[in-house]
Amino acid sequence: MLASVDPMEALPLLRIEHQAVRELIDELTDAEMTRPDTIRYGLYSDQKLSFKDLLAHLICYEAYALEAIDAWHRGEKHWISDAMASPRESRRVHYAGIADRAACSLVEVVAEWEATQAALENFFVEVSCDTWRTLAPYPTNEATDLGGMLEAILVAPPRPMYRHLPVHIPDVDHYIQQLRR
After folding, report:
1. Rounded to whole angstroms, how far apart are CA atoms 41 and 102?
2. pLDDT-based confidence at residue 47 (cuts at 50, 70, 90)
3. Which residues does 79 contact at the CB level (< 8 Å), separation at least 6?
4. What total of structural domains would you count in the chain?
5. CATH number for the domain including 49?
6. What SS3 class is residue 178?
7. Cis omega (within 30 of 0) for bond into 158
8. CA-CA distance, 181 to 174, in Å (whole number)?
9. Largest CA distance in the chain
10. Which of 25, 71, 86, 160 shows a CA-CA span of 20 to 30 A to 171?
11. Distance CA 52, CA 110 (A)
12. Cα 55 to Cα 15, 80, 156, 166, distances in angstroms
């Protein structure tokens, strides 16, 4: 897959995503963030997520993207690239990201989100368009550049470009109202 946008186009979208999540972190109380079964939207109807769980879910894709960038620079294909192409594996990734952080405190999850989003934004700031458009250093079935590999991880449908939160919380004001009823 080839990137559909350059990094300077992707970065503002990613920042909108991160700002929206940050605003929720700042707005919600600890009790609201850890209350189970408050996330009503997403691909899987059996999920019973709290906002803390959603943060864990959001973290996993960005953390895997960072790992995939490191693997790319070593000339290797990260396993997440193949996992995102398989509905079964994609579902496993979805739930594993949450399960992997279930024992973490809210403070730990927020701290990991902060570190992960900062590292990803920093990469987008520093990457050149030439590097972004560099073809995969490993065999692929279709032409894949670095930006396209990242889009496959971070922008998998039905997500809008570099936005993941709206898939799970399409209306932030409504979400907050429901929490505070």
Report:
1. 20
2. confident
3. none
4. 1
5. 1.20.120.450
6. helix
7. yes
8. 11
9. 53
10. 86
11. 8
12. 16, 19, 17, 13
Contact 20, 162 (CB under 8 A): no
- Compute CA 124 distance to the chain's CA centroid, rounded to the nearest angstrom: 14
Q: How far apart are CA 59 and CA 116, in angstroms?
A: 7
The SS3 assignment for 9 reads helix
- Domain region containing 99: 7-179
pTM of structure: 0.92
- The C-alpha atoms of residue 63 and residue 44 are separated, in whole angstroms, by 21
Tokens of 103: 């024992």
The DSSP H or E segment spanning 23 is helix 7-27
Residue 91 structure tokens? 């579902």
Give me the mean pLDDT over the 157-178 stretch. Answer: 87
- What are the CA-CA distances from residue 36 to residues 28, 67, 112, 118 (Å)? 14, 29, 20, 27
The tally of CA atoms less than 13 A away on the side-chain side of residue 87 is 3
Please answer whether residues 59 and 116 qualify as being in contact, where contact means their C-beta atoms are separated by less than 8 angstroms: yes
Our CA angle for 53, 160, 27, nearest 5°, is 45
1 and 144 Cβ atoms separated by less than 8 Å? yes
Burial class (CB in 10 A: 0-12, 13-18, 19+), 167: middle
2 lies in some domain? no
pLDDT tens, position by position, 69-120: 999 999 999 999 988 888 888 888 888 889 999 999 999 999 999 999 999 9
